[in-house]
Automatic annotation (TrEMBL):
It comes from the Bacteria. This is Peptide/nickel transport system substrate-binding protein. GO terms for molecular function: peptide transmembrane transporter activity. It comes from Roseinatronobacter thiooxidans. Belongs to the bacterial solute-binding protein 5 family. InterPro entries: Peptide/Ni-bd, SBP_5, SBP_5_dom, TAT_signal. GO terms for cellular component: ATP-binding cassette (ABC) transporter complex; outer membrane-bounded periplasmic space. Gene3D superfamilies: Dipeptide-binding Protein, Domain 3, Periplasmic binding protein-like II. The lineage of its organism: Bacteria, Pseudomonadati, Pseudomonadota, Alphaproteobacteria, Rhodobacterales. Its main location: periplasm. Pfam families: SBP_bac_5. One of its GO terms (biological process) is peptide transport. It is found in: Periplasm. Residues 1-29 form the signal peptide.
Length: 535
């Protein structure tokens, strides 16, 4: 894995004129206490639990709400700062203990923790919030289940500052799952006051009006344009942020975002294309961190008749131009996931599958398949992710033509992508980029290889893989049965190939006048540690 961090600020930035959209920024945007960041996606809700909330919106749960616990930070060998999956730190909890049988975690809350309105954070607020997370349905509830949390009766108030979290069985994922964005703690008094019989969890109210205890409040949200964070000076969930205000601007054009950060008109451009990261690395501070437990993959829908044929799937795997995709789509950033050893000797994940570009092997498998004369298929990509999906798709289209598979590339609007690709699972051949929050292979399999899971966009259904995932999900990693079972799972999906790994992507962030960036698994900007340059 590679990571880059070079700085050379542009001497001309101070004299550069503003681009037109910056005229709508508040006048405070250029002060020392304010940072301005741009990114290309749209925040569509301020409530992660709400049905339809997109990934870009998760940042509000991170920056505006606390959880009982969080993850620590560590320095990577490259010098970059990153979250630390192996270190759990307090946020609202002052301390916690786990019973000898591993079935009860008792949390003591910080006695001075308060919500933005000054009211005390109590165990009742924690219970109401966790009850909401397991009851909301959809992604939040499935995420809670990954840690062994299924029902409200698992959260028990002991007193005002003490709450028990009870498990049906011990799980290695229970504590870290309380540190991901989903189980955030809400001011339940405010939420209940704005709930209705039809909306008992105040989804409509919290969609536009957060009610938390986190490091930042939302003082303005112009949907499709910008979100403004203001520091909560009473925050006790961690070290008080150095900046008072962070303005997040939505700028769809990658070229415009690049110009803004390059000129110094904004301090941060988040999630920039790999090409921009490569070209800006000698001019600005560019953080480029391979995303843990994340894979860019070519997915073959098992509902599509040709992809039910094992030889067709292998033909596609051998025809895929991995090196060309890695250079054209990723600009060599991230990690290669092809050409791996055929023998599985460890449980590292993501891992390189043992396929390489070999047209002779591809043609041999096509000849043996039930479709020796080829077939036609649509390869779908998201317009929100064209920076890597389009070059990859065009290379795949060209390569498949050489083995008789006629590919038509279909570009789907980003607003529709989640529904057709992940919910309905109607795309016969498509590119996908799932990354697992909890850094274990069994957790990735839980989301991407189990039947009916959201990110199993290939509609893959292998009862053995499903059962092995269930067995290993909560099993301790040092359990002697764990590694052999994981290796068995690897063997099956490498043979079945519902997902063909292309590469492990990097998350790229360009900075010009800001410091303090930390990489996070959720691929959203944590604004809490940010500082002005040289602060």
């Amino acid at each position: 894995m590679s990571s880059f961090n070079r700085r050379a600020f542009l001497a001309s930035a101070a004299g550069a004129g503003m681009l037109p959209f910056l005229r709508v920024l508040p006048a405070t945007a250029q002060t020392r206490d304010t940072l301005v960041t741009v990114f290309g996606q749209t925040i569509n809700s301020l409530d992660l639990h709400r049905v339809g909330t997109n990934r870009a919106s998760y940042q509000v749960a991170i920056n505006c709400y606390d959880r009982l616990v969080g993850f620590g930070a560590k320095q990577l060998p490259s010098g970059e700062m990153s979250y630390d999956y192996d270190t759990i730190v307090p946020e609202l909890a002052e301390s916690w203990t786990t019973s000898e049988d591993g079935l009860t975690i008792t949390f003591k809350l910080k006695p001075n923790a308060t919500f933005w309105d000054g009211s005390k954070v109590t165990a009742e607020d924690v219970k109401w919030s966790l009850d909401r997370a397991v009851s909301a349905g959809g992604f939040p509830t499935t995420q809670m289940a990954a840690g062994g949390f299924f029902r409200p009766d698992q959260f028990e108030v002991v007193d005002e500052e003490t709450i028990n979290v009870k498990l049906d069985y011990p799980s290695k994922l229970a504590l870290p799952n309380l540190a991901v964005p989903v189980p955030f703690i809400i001011n339940s008094s405010v939420a209940k006051a704005n709930a209705t019989e039809a909306d008992p969890w105040a989804m409509e109210y919290l969609h536009t009006t957060p009610a938390g205890s986190g490091a930042f409040k939302v003082t303005r949200w112009d949907q499709g344009q910008q979100l403004v964070y203001e520091r909560n000076d009473a925050w006790i969930g961690g070290e008080l942020p150095a900046v008072q205000r962070v303005i997040v601007r939505e700028v769809p054009s990658a070229a415009t975002r690049r110009a803004l950060v390059e000129r110094g008109d904004v301090q941060i451009s988040f999630d920039i294309p790999d090409r921009d990261a490569s070209e800006l690395a000698d001019k600005l501070t560019v953080h480029s961190t391979p995303i843990e437990n994340c894979i860019h993959a070519l997915c073959l829908n098992t509902k599509f008749a040709p992809f039910q044929d094992a030889d067709v799937r292998k033909a596609v795997a051998y025809a895929t131009p991995y090196d060309a995709i890695f250079e054209a789509a990723a600009y060599g950033r991230g990690a290669k996931l092809w050409g791996g050893d055929t023998e599985i000797t460890d449980i590292a994940w993501p891992r390189a599958f043992p396929y390489t570009t070999n047209l002779d092997m591809a043609r041999e498998h096509m000849a043996k398949s039930g479709f020796p004369d080829g077939f036609e298929v649509t390869l779908s990509i998201s317009l929100d992710l064209v920076s890597w999906m389009e070059p990859a798709a065009l290379l795949i289209q060209e390569a498949m033509a050489q083995i008789g598979i006629k590919v038509t590339v279909d570009r789907i609007p980003g607003a529709n992508w989640r529904t057709v690709a992940l919910v309905d699972k109607t795309l016969d051949m498509h590119l996908e980029n799932f990354g697992g929050w909890l850094n274990t292979p069994c957790y990735y399999f839980f989301w991407a290889y189990q039947k009916d899971r959201l990110f199993n966009s290939s509609a893959y259904d292998n009862p053995v893989v499903h059962e092995l995932t269930e067995r290993t999900l909560h099993m301790a990693i040092d359990d002697p049965e764990y590694a052999p079972l994981i290796k068995q799972m690897f063997e099956i999906v490498i043979e079945d190939l519902p997902r063909i790994p292309l590469y492990q992507p990097a998350l790229n962030v360009a900075m010009n006048g800001a410091d303090g960036y930390e990489f996070w698994f959720h691929r959203q900007l944590d604004v809490r540690p940010l500082t002005g340059a040289g602060a």
